[in-house]
Amino acid sequence: MPKKIQYDYETDAVLYRPIYETGKGFYITVGILLLIILWALFMYITQVWFGLGVTGMNQPITWGFYIVNFVFFIGISHAGTLISAILRLSKAEWRRPITRMAEVITAIVLAIGGLHPILDLGRPDRVLNLFTAGRLQSPLLWDVTSITAYFTASTIYLYLPMIPDIARLRDKGGKLTWLYNFLSWGWQDTEHQKKVLNRAINILMIMVIPIAISVHTVISYIFSMTLQPGWHSTIFGPYFVVGAIFSGIAALLILMIASRKVFHLENYLKKIHFQYLGTLLLIMSLLWFYFTFSEYLTGIFGSEPHEMHIILYKFTGPYAIFFWGMILCNFIIPVILLGFKRFKTITGILFASIAVVIGMWLERLNIVVPSLANPRIELPIGIYFPSIVEWALFMGGIAVFILGYVLFSKFFPIISIWETEEGRKEAITEVEERIQSYLPGDETISK
Amino acid sequence: MPKWAMIIDLDKCTGCGDCMAACKLENNIAIVSPEEANNGRVMFWMDMITMYEGEYPNIQIKRMPKPCFHCDNPPCIKVCPVYATYINDEGLVGQVYHRCIGCRYCMVACPYTAKVFNWYEPEWPEEFKVCFNPDVSVRMKGVVEKCSFCAHRLITVKETADSEEREIRDEEYLPACSESCPADAIYFGDLDNRESKVYNLSRSSRAFREFEDLGTEPKVIYLLKKE
Amino acid sequence: MEIKRREFLKLLGGVGGAVTLGAYGCEQVIDVPERLIELAKKGPGLETWKNTICGQCPAGCGIRVRLIDGIPVYIKGNPIYPVNQGGMCPSGHSALEVLFNPDRVKEPLKRIGIQGSGKWEQLNWEDALQTIADFLIKQRRNNKSHQIAFLDGSEQHSLMSEHIAQFMKAFGSPNYYQHPSIKNNSIPFLLLQGVQQIPSYDFLNTKYVLSFGSNFLEEGYSPVYYTKLYAHLKDVTEERRTRFVQVDSRMSLTAVNADRWIPIRPGTYGALALGVAFVLIREKIYDEDFISKYTFGFEDWVDNKGHTHLGFKSNVLGNYYPEQVSKITGVPGETILEIARELGNNRPSLVMGEQGSAENTNGTFSQMAVHCLNALLGNFEKEGGLYFTDLPPLANLPPVDEDELAVTGNSQQRIGRDSNGAYPFSDFSMDSFVKNILSDNPYPISVLFLYKGNPLFNTLNHHNFAEALTKIPLVVSFDSFITETSEYADIILPDHTFLEKWDEFSNIPSVGFTHVGIQQPVIEPLHNTRNSAEVLVDLGNLVGGSVPNALPFENYEKEIKFRIENIYRSGEGAMISEGLKGSWLEYLQQRGWQVGRYNSFSEFWELFTRNGGWWNPIKKKRDIKELFNTPSGKFEFYSQLLKDEIDRLVLNLGDDTPQNRELAINSLNISARGDKVFLPHHEAVPFDAGMPLYLTTYKLLTNRNGLSSNQPTMQEMFGYTTRQFWNTWAEINPEIAREYGISNEDYIWIESAIGSIKLKALVNPGIMKDVIAIPFGLGHSSYGRYAKGHGINPYSILKNKYDLINGNPAPQATKVKISLAT
Ligand SMILES: Nc1nc2c(c(=O)[nH]1)N[C@H]1C(S)=C(S)[C@@H](COP(=O)(O)OP(=O)(O)OC[C@H]3O[C@@H](n4cnc5c(=O)[nH]c(N)nc54)[C@H](O)[C@@H]3O)O[C@H]1N2
Ligand SMILES: Nc1nc2c(c(=O)[nH]1)N[C@H]1C(S)=C(S)[C@@H](COP(=O)(O)OP(=O)(O)OC[C@H]3O[C@@H](n4cnc5c(=O)[nH]c(N)nc54)[C@H](O)[C@@H]3O)O[C@H]1N2
Ligand code: SF4
Ligand code: SF4
Ligand code: SF4
Ligand code: SF4
Ligand code: SF4
Ligand SMILES: [Mo]
């Protein structure tokens, strides 16, 4: 029975609690999640064993859930790093309690999303051919590259700001000291170390933004580089990026609200944070609608027969529910809930975010399946019902994400402690100075 | 370098479907279970398209055999991440089964839906394995396949031509479908050879290529019905 | 060899690939079948080709089998065989799946369970033959040789049928039947022309073809042959281009390819033919010279007793004016006018109406009506008309000297014909056959041999037929598979498949020239099977009597040689040869025919078997009189043969009174009266009341009559145009669909007076409004793993109806009602 570690005296005791107190809830959640993951794993093994026949895919609908979820998850992953980077860059003070959660999402979801193309392979055993025999002309390879890049960048970008916190945990001792010891790289809070750390973070934050944008642009290229009606479009790049950030913010909001409840972070995640992010979400929603609108208007206006055929199929065909569902979730609901002060409560925002996440998933579905279901050549229209295996792997993916987050929160503070402290100490004066510098009067700040 | 091309005369083609059978048998193409077949997993390298035009009783039913078009600018090969589908210098678009990772990107990219996928491990009763065509390898689960213009036949033809130290004659290299079409509706030959049948037919006023506007430059050319 | 190897790696893009791959070995990069690597290294396995005849349907195409080290790996058309010139149909193409089929009967079987129980035990050939022989000997000893019946479904024009006939004659039974029977099919021509042969049509020189439901590209006697002709015609220049008009209830493959499709109510095309005749006569666009010189019964006429008789002309003019015909057939009056005028004004033009449209109770009358159009056009023995091919100079089998047992047996009444004179011109009718067996009328059948054919699957009254089978003490099947029918056999003596055996085929009906094709083994028999022909000989030898001498040949091959030698001696015709390739016209027209010279028969035989056949494209010019072997020696619009037959029936009833006449004609269910009976006329088909839709079944190139259901490739391709694989469907017209609220791919119930079946409905604008069409061939309850349990057999709801005159099955005589299945 190791002696209980003391943390109550800390100002940010709340942030330590999840690490040192383990309730029954924790074990139950982890247990359930593990079950789901095992089930998914089993399903995947059957797929590898028998072949992709166990999925609902067919000719002409040769891509299904796996690709849909691939695009979807990668989209979500944009929450983190990109947003936190932008917030850091714009020196938005309110970012401090948000950034880490955001970055965690990225790291975990990116890993999950990145694996999806492999789930989709008919011959996973030959995946190495991608490296031994890769053909750079193939957008699929561009993806491999940019996703790996983004993954490395964002994990480092998650890790660096954690070092000071890890050091704190190390100093508190306990079972995992060895781990913290290793991860904290002998951090001693010296001025020099702080300077180096900040510089590193700043460099990364600049690097990570273009990479992040490239990732989703390239994913959109997978589709837009083909000649398929409904895919072969120039605005797909930005369209996907916007969609990604959109779904990312929504996911982030859901996570924040959840954590707030579970870890009692009311004093850290205040209404204002949600208000700000909510507004951001609203803007993205409008932006998303603008892109969707232009995408379809150009299609309809030019009404190239095959293009038109697919648009009508989406509007009125068997996919109509999904299409209009998407419009409802991505535009109508968020605009109403976030547009009016009255609804813009935390619950309102929660619902809006959930709607958006669902809506964005539907969007991916609407992009992938209908274009494949309607071959150019006069072949019958295809139908696609995802099989139990595909559902299992979808659930599995989500479970892995939640588990990842739960475990993370078990071993590391999900709100950056040192940055919060730093905020308390320096932010006020720093901001005051900054504002001073905007105001008329002679230069106060020396170069 | 010859440029192999196929011409299908829709005026002569009756839609008898023998080309489909010839292809399946010549190329050891797997037969999937009935349920699979009706769930869009049937495998025809040579497929049959049926179009209804007009209203009863003045209707026209159009039939159109559809192999891989061996595009000269094939969208399918550009997207393959591992060079498992390629175009060789004689214009044949091929598949490398042992290398394909089964991402099905090429199927998605083919505007003509010409490729099929091995959703399961293909199976035959022992008895039928005896009469496989030894020149064509049997595919494994998880890879994409499609019409090869019966490339294996070209090998033999080349070898005979080489050993006799001469050029390949027109219509010496014939794919299975073209060889046994009862309507002689499928011509095959070298598009760069001004003496060849296909060269001359390809300049007929009836000649057209599917979705020419896509710039894929199919090397399967159809001849319209005479009016 | 190295060079070659690289050559072919390059071909498969390997070298290119390899370069980009560096480290990878070529085999890794491109997919080189082990066998090919061997091949590239130390030369190919021995490849040989063998010519033979396809046995998958009666069309008799020549095929070329590819063998690697003696094992057949591919079948293609024999390019020099005149019938198909290298062309093939899917069913024949995939015939290796029959040869190597895992469900073949591999040795003689004896049924131990009850019929259909599928319980069998192996027999060795000697015991099997002995058991049967003992039974046969007993029959003969008790003067019951006639109680042996032989049912041959091959419908092929092979030596085998004569071989069987010879056996039965010598054994002493009149009960050898082909089912379906070509003899029956040619009755319409017999009645009008006195010639019992299916005519050939000179497509190549005709300008206009009007086909009454003869689906010659898809079904027809020789689909590939006709496809070749058709394609050749497409190649000729615009102005000389033949125009095809197809009359059919559904848009069959032939209709799809015709220049015009004319939808018609099933069972009414005789009326349409007469409607066309009306226009030809009224507008005087017929061959008056021919009519006056060579026909009988066109005008009204007076017989020697002084009675005046109704002539074809006044009958037609009186009853078949377009409005009337349009009412019957559903074909608009103006359409009738149009086609009649086109027909009359684009000479030479011809009219054909084979089986398909004949598959109804009024089939014979209707085909007579159609054939009369050819008479009106004077289409005999002239370019672009129709003609009969000459028989090949094959040696006949030695005459049988029947011992008295045989003589008495053969003199017995034939059990395949109705004893009360129904179906007066049938050589065989399944209806009568079954009825007679069930009622021992006039005598029981104690042994039934079944060769080819799966009648239980594709005859109408299969319940009664099954019952009849159970009643027969000994049923012997020669089938290579356990089919619905052979399930009922007591003993199965498995035959070789056509790729393992000898046979000889000659003059496929409607093929336009004299020809003989040789079927020969391409591989040693895979299993312990025997050629049924030789099995018969063995049986004969065991039975003794006059049988052994009737088939005095060492083996079947020798028997064939004996027949062929006569061709060699005759010096006629020529070996088929490379000369054939190239345009059909050219070599049909190449006169000054060079007969090949052979120094010996063995040389002849060697070439004959190597090339696959012999043919003679030049037909002897027949004097037009020879064509008409009727009482009047002319083409008889008024069929005296039919009249004589009916007079005979009348006399059987007593003396020639109007009452007896009425009785006789009534007994045949003929609705016409007086002279009309003997003239081509429209006999309304007795459809069931209260059934709104006509049911028509048809056969696809991918299946034939259910035959190809044991070939997986064909099962998969079954609905290659509708994308229904391994499955039966029903085609309905869009209007009907709307009426019943049926949308494409919905399931519907189809109900006839007999029963009902559930099928997927395909909405198809290519079908007559009140007709529903179902492809025939699937729905097996036996016949191996690939056939069993896939699709539905429309037979289960077809009514038990037959052609009134020739007793052929009438699978188009059923009406049904449909409803959406929920
Ligand atoms: N592919 C294939 N070829 C075959 C066969 C096969 O099963 N499959 N069988 C062979 C044999 S054994 C035979 S006997 C021949 C038979 O071949 P055909 O003589 O062509 O007869 P079917 O094929 O039975 O039917 C031909 C067409 O007649 C149409 N029809 C039916 N009733 C009527 C009617 O009342 N009026 C009109 N105008 N049309 C009607 C049907 O819709 C069908 O499309 O084919 C031979 N060749
Ligand atoms: N609805 C409908 N029904 C029809 C018709 C139609 O048009 N519509 N057509 C009718 C006509 S025209 C015909 S011809 C009949 C055809 O009916 P069948 O004459 O019964 O012909 P298949 O159904 O092809 O059966 C052929 C059988 O012979 C066996 N067999 C094949 N090769 C050999 C061999 O070499 N030796 C032996 N011993 N057996 C062999 C096969 O295993 C198979 O069981 O169907 C009739 N039924
Ligand atoms: S084989 Fe010839 S005629 Fe038959 S479908 Fe193919 S191309 Fe057309
Ligand atoms: S048809 Fe399709 S598969 Fe064939 S070459 Fe063109 S793009 Fe590739
Ligand atoms: S499926 Fe195979 S061939 Fe097609 S793109 Fe993927 S790896 Fe290349
Ligand atoms: S060319 Fe060869 S592979 Fe291509 S469709 Fe014809 S037969 Fe099949
Ligand atoms: S038509 Fe087809 S099945 Fe009949 S003989 Fe010819 S190839 Fe064989
Ligand atoms: Mo037949």
Describe the overall structure.
The complex is a heterotrimer of chains A (447), B (227) and C (822). Chain A has 447 residues and is mostly helical. Chain A is built from 17 helices and no strands. In chain A, helix 3 packs antiparallel against helix 15 and helix 8 packs antiparallel against helix 9 (177-183). Chain A is globular. In chain B, strands 8-1-10-9 form a four-stranded mixed sheet. A two-stranded antiparallel sheet of chain B has the order 2-3. Chain B has a two-stranded antiparallel ribbon with strand order 4-5. Chain B is an alpha+beta fold and 227 residues long. Chain B has eight helices and ten strands. Chain C is globular, with a radius of gyration of 28 Å. In chain C, strand 4 (109-111) and strand 5 (120-122) form a beta hairpin. Chain C is α/β, with parallel strands linked by helices and 822 residues long. Residues 1-32, 581-585 and 591-595 of chain C have low confidence and may be disordered. Chains in contact: A-B, A-C, B-C. The A-B interface holds A 50-53, 57-63, 117, 120-124, 126-127, 129-130, 133-135, 137-141, 144, 222, 225-228, 372, 375-379, 382-383 and B 36, 39-42, 47, 49-51, 64, 66, 75, 78-84, 99-105, 107-109, 111-113, 116-121, 141-144, 210-211, 214, 216.
